[in-house]
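Researcher: Let's run the pair from yesterday's discussion. Sequence first, then tokens, for each.
Model: Starting with the first of the pair.
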Amino acid sequence: MTTVTTAPMQAGAPAADLQPRQLIVTVYGLYARQEHNWLSVAALVRLMADLGVDGQAVRSSVYRLKKRGILHSVLVSGAAGYALSGDAVAMLREGDVRIFRDHRASVANGWVLAVFSVPERDRDKRHELRTRLTRLGFGTVAPGVWVAPRHVAAEAETLLARHGLAGYVDLFRGEHLGFADLGSKIRDWWDLDELAAQYGTFGDRFEPMARRLARHTVTDREAFVAYVPILTAWRQLPYRDPGLPLELLPHPWPGQTAAGLFAELNAQLAEPARQHATSIIHG
């Protein structure tokens, strides 16, 4: 058995304020992809029980995820289970880059501009487009003009094309030439106070766990109970902060501290958590 160091934990306690469907997406992102994107109903229910989620909540959440096109029912060797859709696999693959790599831009890297105009007859596409750009971490310069660090360009091009939105958007790469101070404009384009508060919440929640890592030992199962909520809480943040240049952000920027904390916990908990999940999946 693999062991790591942390305080003893009650099953499900770290997941108490997270939605079951969020935890299910994390479980599928972490463990189903190594199992041909499929988990049996029995394995999913057992893994979610470790996180304090009962069978009824699992079924209800899976129903919602199926309606959203993320999961679908599949029989494998007579066993009932759920598989990831093609779109969900693509989404998770793209998410790996955001979640597990630190893409911190500099001003010298430049920017990508998304300029769009959507006819009134397609106003539902306008809402979807804004939602997608927000998810990519773009900030709003003006109506129909959004901006992000340049490294987001390829991801934006791929995502907008996959969702049938490319015809409404022009993407440009460039640099800021003037005239206002760029640091002050960043505050207009992104809600830095809210973003800093979200990073602070992550740190407040999981820093005590990191401090306990040097003092206690935990089983693979306990690592799983800790790790899935950590990743579920973290995976939202790299989308809200697209890696804005540190020279334009308040100092010290809590995103740096939070990223370091996540990297530390990920390094210590990911493998034993995987060992537990694998034992359940193949048990």
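Model: Moving on to the second of the pair.
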Amino acid sequence: MPLVEIRDLWVSYGKAQILEGVSMEVEAEELVAVIGPNGAGKTTLLRAISRVAEPRGSVFFEGQRIDHLSPVEVVKRGIIHCPERRRLFPDLSVEDNLKMGAYLRGKDREGILRDMEMMFSLFPILKERRTQDAGTLSGGEQQMLAIARSLMSQPKFLMLDEPSLGLAILVRKLIADTIKGIKEDGVTILLVEQDADLAFDLADRVYVLEHGKVALQGLPKDLMNDPYIKEIYLGIV
């Protein structure tokens, strides 16, 4: 049984139909990437799973339907959405942003402090900036903080939306290595990524979303040999 199963998912904003019958599966401890052009519905897919957007269709997590739950209830199940463009609390310190990531952990003060130190080990620059307002960090530092804040929630299923967007090459490599490490620690990941090369490098399987529908799916090594993928997404003619 997949950890996450999406069946015939439809999402619209007003009269605009964004997702049209999307179905996909994510196995436990798997990293699945979703690629596609701007406007394909990639971000909407994540918003529908996390219940920020209102879907029609079915979303199952650990064999139970979650498409009727509130966003808070979804988070309580261990489904964490790290959104595009970070969406930090800019006027709060790095440390306070990390604490916000653990807000549902209640009185687990010892565990929260332990995990915060783990985040500082994962991203040493954040330890240096721990008292600095998040809004004053560089783009790369903000992305590190966004991922660290998500990990403070102890996710079973982590959804990452465009984590490499706008980052310098060295920072992109650091983020990619971090994502690999998160997967190796047993966290299941759904990665939305505009950079197809990065997605293929990280993913166990890839879905191609176009015009709100799944156009292709498969193993990275197979899709990379598809003439359409090579030309449109990898720039190889």
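Researcher: Give me one sentence on the second I can quote.
Model: The first strand starts at residue 4 and ends at 13.
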